[in-house]
Amino acid sequence: MATTTTETTGAEGGHAAKPGMPQLDTTTWVPQLFWLAVAFIALYMVVSRIVIPKTGGVIAKRKASVEGDLAAALALKADSDRAVEAYEQSRAAARAKANGIAQENRNALGSEIDGERAKLDAALSAKAAEADKRISAAKSKALAGIKGVAADIARDIAIELTSAKITRKAAADAVAKIK
Amino acid sequence: MATTEGGEVKIIDPIHQFVINNIIDLGPLSFTNSALWAVIAVVCAALLFILAPANLIPTRLQSIAESLYEVVDNMTHEVLHENARTYFPFVLTLFLFILFANVLGLIPYSFTVTSHIIVTLALALVVFIGATIIGFIRNGFGYLRLFVPSGVPALLLPIVVLIEIVSYFIRPLSLSIRLFANMMAGHMMLKVMAGFVVMLGVAGGWLPLIAMVGLTGLELLVAVLQAYVFALLTCMYLSDAMHVDH
Question: Do B89 and A36 touch (CB under 8 A)?
Answer without folding.
Answer: no
